[in-house]
Amino acid sequence: MKLRNIYFSIAIGIIFTSCKETVKKENTNETVDEVEETINEVDDVTEVESEAKTIEIQLTPKSESDVTGTVSFTEKDGMVTMSANLTGLAEGTHAIHLHEKADCSSPDGKSSGGHWNPTKQPHGKWGSQEGYHKGDIGNFKADASGAGSITFATNEWCIGCDDDNENILGKAIIVHQGTDDYTSQPSGAAGSRVSCGGVIQ
C-alpha cells in the first residue's frame, strides 16, 4: 500500500511539472509574438517617418536686379512646406508666386509664363472664397539690408504626385519687385520679376 502511494505521488508530481512547463512555453510564445509585433510596429513608424521628400532650388536675378536666394520644399504627412530666403531686395513688401513653367531663360523671367493656375480660378489671396491660383503664395517683407524670408505650408501641393492640380514639379518660383494687391487680374499688379528658380527634381 505504501509503495502504491509513492507511485501515485510521483505520477501527480510529473503531471504537475509537465503542466507548468506547458504553461511556461505558451507564455514564452506569447511574449515572443508580442515582441515581434512591437518591432513590426516600430518598423512601420520608421518607414512612414522616412517618406519625407525635400528639394532645394537656387533663385537667380532677373530684370537687372541683384536678387538671389534659396527655396526649399519639403513634403511630409500630406503637407508641403516652402521656405524661401532671399537677398538683394529693395526694402519693403514683395510678392512671391509659383508660375506655370520651370523656365527662367529670359532676362525678364517671363519665360516662366503666368501664375500656376490649373483649376482656372481668378487671382486672389490664398484661401479666398472668391478664388485663388494654386501659385498665389502671397507677400513677404525685406529689411533695410535687402534680406527677406517666408515660410508657407499647404496640403494643396505635392512633390511629384500624379495630380496635375497639386504637383509643383515643373513650375517656377518668381519673386516680384512689388506687392501683390490680391485683386488685380491676372497677377495682382506685383511688378517686374526680379528673381526666378525652376522647381525641378
Give a quick precis of the structure:
The protein has 201 residues and is an alpha+beta fold. It contains one helix and eight strands, in the order H-E-E-E-E-E-E-E-E.
General form: globular
Mean pLDDT: 83
Major sheet strand order:
5-4-7-8-1-2-3-6
Rounded Rg: 31 Å
Structural class: alpha+beta
Determine the oligomeric state from the structure.
Answer: single chain
Q: Helix fraction?
A: 10-25%
Number of helices: 1
Descriptive overview:
There is one protein chain. The chain has 201 residues and is α+β, with helices and mostly antiparallel strands. The chain contains 1 helix and 8 strands; from the N terminus they run αββββββββ. It has one helix at 2-49; strands at 53-61, 68-76, 79-87, 92-99, 138-142, 148-154, 171-176, 193-199. Strands 5-4-7-8-1-2-3-6 form an 8-stranded antiparallel sheet, with no helix packed on it. A hairpin with a 6-residue loop joins β1 and β2. The longest helix is centred in the N-terminal third of the chain and has 48 residues, at 2-49. The chain starts with a helix and ends with a strand.
